[in-house]
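INSTRUCTION: Work out how this chain folds

Fields: amino acid sequence; protein backbone structure tokens

Chain under study, with its fold:
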Amino acid sequence: MDNLWLAQILFDLGGVQFGNFTVSESAVSSPVFVNPKVLISHPTALRVASKLMQQEIQLAQSLRRSRVHPFNVVAGVPVGGLLLATAYSLENNTPLIYARIRPEGTGNRGIEGRFTKGDTALIIDDLVTQGSSIVETASLLQENGLAVKDVIVLVDREHGAAERLRRHGYNLMSILKLDVMLNHYMSRGLISEETYRACAEYLRAKQGENNSSPRL
């Protein structure tokens, strides 16, 4: 099982749809919608997702110049990232914490779970567009004495999040990139050439915007 198997499962579960959608972070029209949260209905796929994340982390750590810092805890970005982080925690026996960005019910803004100040947290999310929610989560963790160096996501929509996060000092890793998913669906005959072309043009336009935007 590999990342393309996971891309196929996402499609089969209805987690990838084509049409006219508004991407929440950018508030612009998108011809493709990706919802990795559907994986919770497929325990095997959820387990594979956590295994693929661990493989990516181990590969990065095995390099002569490791691209991933050692971490003590994992922190999921609500809501989809928290679901994946829980699966990862169970699969790898790594402590999990939950960063509550906003007060919820009787819970105040803060962090659920035990940790020690000075610990390093690996942030896990299911999908990244521009990276705003990840930056917000990282800021809360750092406010509470945790270090944040690395982030891993299941799907990168390739809207410039990697560069934005890098400018904040965070390294982004991803299991699936949107262009790889689109190529897979096209090669399998799951989407028409017209749909593929519309999505590819949209993706190129977003990448062009990010390449020409001023550095923050």
Q: What stands out?
A: Residues 120 and 147 are 5 Å apart (CA to CA). The first strand starts at residue 16 and ends at 23. The radius of gyration is 17 Å. Strands lie at 16-23, 28-34, 73-76, 96-100, 110-112, 120-128, 147-156, 171-177.
